[in-house]
């Protein structure tokens, strides 16, 4: 190919930018609350080269790590590519060498055996280290001060899984990090690796478990007593991949499966539950237990997979706007026999949720997630699934209360991070990037600071960006005191 494809993955908000940048003292409109001091790290997919295949997905785009450094009301910004093995190989060749999404059989022969991950999904902070992650490979460590790539991370040789989730869970009390890898044994394998790293960043446990089928496990949850592994029927088939076909194809007639085990237990004690056929879930709002045998899992479910290329690979042709969905609570009673569980709607459809870090895995009163404003007009084309969100919701699952911040016409909002306030009665702050269309394929981006308990009031501060930005996938907030103690500052 001689140019980027004219598809939703590479046009409008998803138009490639491909610029490494560093800017100090960005202008601030309004006032940034004084307790917001630290770094907002973002994972931004941005292809460094024109892809080899016309129907490529933005999920294959090279990962960039971006950072808003906020200190005493001042804001600096920087963004750099993650120098993965894949990125370096293509930079040397000055062209794309890797083929279809998660299909090594379509690559240029010169990169056979080269690590294919692009580290473009989630920045993860744990034990003084910053990692860039994507679930098809291991993480890459990045210097949080310079954004330079340090290298692939395998816990000093201790990690055996070939993959690591982009959705880890850090216990707010113990500081332990719980994570997993699916396809842990290699392409299309059914092995799940369940891992625990202690508060100092040492890998202290890695257990392997064989899943019912090779399917998507994008997110998981850990409560105070249990670890929960949801498996959804977007499946991989090795023969299809060897023939040059897609890695994923959604199976609408296959049931989802949820495995639950004690979080410090043996994987042999895993108990499986069967859920609705064809349902798709990418992100979990929260999970908690009642101290006994009941487990509650709050998530965003849709009737089928929201990624067009994943469902169309199986012949499912539906517009995203026509796919039913809801925010739901799945309740499991481990004291009862059987594979069934209860499902109840608790909120409108949406995704990219956020709760205060201190409430992860605990009973909680409120949270936030992105959705569509039913009166906001057609959404912009952009983001990983091709349709950008244009509203922020605050939800109280127990009371049913729902608040909304709707964005102006032809605007989009990215996933926020949450920053606690000094006042324990204050719900804290949400910080996120928004985009607004201002002309034909012309967009303006801003950093917004929002009062988490009063989102309908809109932002209390805005930081206009000097150039347009690519949509992010996920982000992570690191307080200034933790940033100053980073390993990279001492190594």
Automatic annotation (TrEMBL):
Entry's Gene Ontology BP terms: carotene catabolic process
What does the record give as EC number?
1.13.11.-
Q: Mind listing the GO molecular function terms for this protein? A: carotenoid dioxygenase activity; metal ion binding
Ligand binding (Fe cation): 167, 218, 283, 474
Q: Which UniProt keywords apply?
A: Dioxygenase, Iron, Metal-binding, Oxidoreductase
Asked if the record carries the keyword Oxidoreductase, the reply is: yes
Q: Explain how, and how many, cofactor molecules are bound.
A: Binds 1 Fe(2+) ion per subunit.
State the needed cofactors, names only. Answer: Fe(2+)
- InterPro entries associated with the record: Carotenoid_Oase
Which principal EC class is assigned to this enzyme?
oxidoreductase
Q: One Pfam match, by short name?
A: RPE65
Name the family the entry cites: Belongs to the carotenoid oxygenase family.
Q: What is this protein called?
A: Dioxygenase
Natural source organism? Hyphococcus luteus
């Amino acid at each position: 190919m001689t140019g980027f494809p004219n598809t939703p993955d590479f046009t409008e908000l998803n138009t490639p930018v491909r610029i490494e940048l560093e800017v100090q003292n960005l202008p601030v409109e309004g006032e940034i609350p004084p307790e917001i001091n630290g770094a907002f790290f973002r994972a931004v997919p941005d292809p460094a080269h024109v892809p080899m295949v016309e129907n490529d997905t933005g999920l294959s785009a090279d990962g960039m790590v971006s950072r808003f450094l906020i200190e005493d009301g001042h804001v600096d910004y920087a963004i750099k590519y993650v120098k993965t093995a894949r990125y370096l190989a293509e930079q040397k060749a000055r062209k794309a060498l890797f083929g279809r999404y998660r299909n090594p059989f379509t690559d240029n022969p010169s990169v056979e055996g080269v690590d294919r991950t692009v580290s473009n999904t989630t920045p993860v902070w744990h034990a003084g280290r910053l990692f860039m992650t994507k679930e098809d490979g291991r993480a890459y460590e990045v210097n949080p001060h310079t954004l330079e790539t340090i290298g692939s991370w395998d816990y000093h040789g201790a990690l055996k899984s070939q993959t690591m989730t982009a959705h880890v869970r850090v216990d707010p009390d113990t500081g332990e990090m719980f994570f997993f890898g699916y396809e842990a044994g290699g392409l299309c394998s059914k092995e799940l690796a369940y891992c625990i790293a202690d508060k100092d960043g040492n890998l202290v446990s890695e257990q392997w478990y064989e899943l019912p089928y090779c399917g998507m496990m994008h997110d998981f949850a850990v409560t105070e007593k249990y670890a929960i592994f949801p498996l959804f029927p977007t499946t991989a088939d090795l023969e299809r991949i060897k023939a040059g076909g897609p890695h994923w194809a959604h199976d609408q007639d296959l049931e989802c499966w949820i495995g639950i085990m004690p979080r410090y237990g043996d994987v042999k004690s895993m108990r499986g539950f069967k859920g609705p056929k064809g349902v798709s879930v990418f992100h979990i709002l929260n999970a908690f237990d009642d101290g006994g045998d009941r487990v509650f899992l709050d998530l965003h479910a849709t009737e089928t997979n929201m990624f067009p290329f994943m469902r169309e690979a199986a012949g499912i042709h539906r517009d995203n706007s026509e796919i039913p969905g809801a925010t739901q609570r799945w309740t499991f009673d481990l004291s009862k026999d059987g594979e069934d569980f209860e499902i109840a709607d608790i909120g409108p459809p949406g995704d990219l949720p956020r709760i205060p870090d201190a409430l992860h895995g605990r009973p909680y009163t409120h949270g936030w997630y992105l959705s569509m404003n039913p009166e906001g007009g057609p959404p912009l084309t952009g983001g990983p699934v091709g349709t950008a969100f244009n509203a922020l919701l605050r939800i109280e699952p127990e009371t049913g209360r729902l608040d909304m911040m709707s964005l102006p016409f032809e605007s989009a909002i990215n996933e926020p991070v949450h920053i606690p306030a000094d006042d324990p009665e204050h719900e804290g702050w949400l910080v996120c990037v928004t985009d607004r269309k201002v002309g034909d394929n012309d967009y303006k981006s801003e950093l917004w600071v929002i009062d988490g308990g009063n989102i309908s009031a809109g932002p209390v501060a805005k930081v206009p960006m000097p150039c347009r930005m690519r949509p992010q996938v996920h982000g992570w907030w690191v307080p200034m005191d933790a940033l100053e103690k980073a390993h990279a500052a001492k190594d």
